[in-house]
Amino acid sequence: MLKLLPSFTDFAFLMPIVFLFGRMGGLRDLLSDCDTGWHIRTGEWIVANHRVPAGDIFSFSKTGDPWFAWEWLSDVVFAWLNGHGGLQAVVVFAILLLALTFALLFKLLRRKSNPFVAIAITMLAAAGSSIHWLARPHLFTLLFLVLFYAALEQVREGRTRLAGVPYLVILPVVTVLWTNLHGGFFVGIIMIGAYGGGELLTLAFSGAGHPAGGRHLAGRRALHYFLSAFACLAASLINPYTYHLHTHMAMYLRDPFNSQHIHEFLSPSFHHPSAIFFELMLVLAAVAACRSLSKGSFTDALFLLVWAHGALLAARNIPIFLIVAALPAAAVIQEGLERLPEWDVAGWLRVVVQRFNRVAAETAVTDVIGRWHLVSALGLVLVAALICAPHPPLKFRAEFDPKTYPAGALATLRSDPQARIFTHDEWGDYLIWRLYPSQKVFVDGRSDFYGDDFEQKYIDILNVSDGWEKTLAQFGVDTILMPPNTPLAGALKESSRWRMVYDDGIAVVFFHAQKTGGKPPSLALMGEGVSRDREVTKTQTSDRAITETKSKT
């Protein structure tokens, strides 16, 4: 009967689901970035052509230019899911990846803490990482990070083999899969290198009184870690683009343009509602690092420093830091709880902690008993059923929000299959999802493909900077799709060379005057937009909502 009851692992599995549909906006958040759309279309192209694309297939502005489909295998998976179950299947799979990630993270934390501490820190990591919960390939990186972390901890604890095969040999093999699923494979290599670096620091700073055998063992462990990291790097070359992928990624990640214009590459805002979770983990990580150093161990402090720096540098690294910091944080809390009764503290606090430790120990005994995890399975099935229902609740609708994306303007855009459409990059992703292959886009979310020079021209158009009309003419743009309250929309309304043909309050479509024969458009083409005063059409220095908040792969 006990096998039927839920365990803390079940709670950890269901936690992201409860958080997604309870505190967050449900699938509207999971699909708040339309990169998912072009990933699916890429996968469909790969399946249809039996090869990965070497050149661009989505734009008319850079058709055929070299393009790296970093996550080609994820794209194929997403395309297969979409082909068999639509966006519903894609989002259910994304939810499954999140649930597995944090269930496995909880299992990892249980190695060094009681179930109450482990579930609390897992909740903290999940809540903080929710800023980057999107139905995109990067979810594979979060899952693989936990798997690598668990394997490296096994090695550090002396359990170096799985079914007779060394973990440090298995990791390079897994890296091949990781590399082709998502470009974050280097995270695993950095983690292995950090374990090796920690052993080297132990070797370098161990005193004369340190046993010679211990120093020799630290040197051997460091060598094994570094050999495994090098093997992982070599294994990552097994991808359709070989070393060219690494060169391209290095250039892209070092590009200062990203840290100025792409939201995920900006430093985190501590005014964000989820920032408190990141702040708490930073404090716990600092305590854990200091405690580790006081014991003469450098590994935890090293990788905490690396990923805390990464998270403070770019918001997209926050989920990685939270996962990496979770284990040292749980361990230091557990140690504090065990030692607190020995400290000179108030008697009532000592009694409370002793009782808590006793209950936690008793709970741990029953929690380790094997379960069938029926609650986890039923929870996921229930969510899938709601998502796939004929008329699902708002939070369970697998769609790109029609109040955010130009769904109503599609009929007008389809009226001219030869149209060369300009819109901002997020809506470019949406047009790929809804109009490809019949129509292509000017720009979309693949910032690594378009490059700085092109992206700057694109931003200049959005901000109506000098030469914007010349750039549009250079690429033969004859249709423009924009949100109504943007500098470009305001300028086009006042231009004699453009005619507004659709306005529904969410999106405005303009045709070039030559396209309409210079005549005013038919009212039949107009949406149900409302009048707007001159104030909303004034140009601005920069359109931050478009140029600096775009999510990337």
**H and E string:** HHHHHHEEHHHHHHHHHHHEHHHEHEEH
The DSSP helix count reads 22
**Could you name the ranges where pLDDT drops below 50 across 5 or more consecutive residues?**
529-551
Strand arrangement, largest sheet?
3-4-6-5
Termini separation comes to 45 Å
Mean of pLDDT: 91
Report on the biggest sheet: 4 strands, mixed
Strand content: under 5%
Cα-atom Rg, whole angstroms? 26 Å
What general outline do the C-alpha atoms trace? globular
Tell me the total number of β-strands. Answer: 6
Question: What structural category arises from helix and sheet content?
Answer: mainly alpha
| Helical content class | 55-70%
List the topology elements.
Layout: H1 8-22, H2 27-30, H3 35-49, H4 72-109, H5 115-129, H6 138-156, E1 161-162, E2 165-166, H7 167-181, H8 186-205, H9 212-235, H10 243-254, H11 258-261, H12 275-294, H13 299-313, H14 318-339, H15 347-367, H16 374-388, H17 410-414, E3 421-422, H18 425-435, H19 447-462, H20 468-474, E4 479-482, H21 487-494, E5 498-503, E6 508-512, H22 544-547
Parallel strand pairs: 3-4
Antiparallel strand pairs: 1-2, 4-6, 5-6
Helix pairs in contact: 1-4, 1-5, 1-16, 3-4, 3-18, 4-5, 4-6, 4-16, 5-12, 5-14, 6-7, 6-8, 6-14, 7-9, 8-9, 8-13, 12-13, 12-14, 13-14, 19-20
Please, could you describe this protein's structure?
- The structure is a single chain.
- With 553 residues, this protein is mostly helical.
- Helix content is 59%, strand content 4%.
- It contains 22 helices and 6 strands.
- The protein has helices at residues 8-22, 27-30, 35-49, 72-109, 115-129, 138-156, 167-181, 186-205, 212-235, 243-254, 258-261, 275-294, 299-313, 318-339, 347-367, 374-388, 410-414, 425-435, 447-462, 468-474, 487-494, 544-547, and strands at 161-162, 165-166, 421-422, 479-482, 498-503, 508-512.
- α5 runs antiparallel to α14 and α12 runs antiparallel to α13.
- The chain is globular, with a radius of gyration of 26 Å.
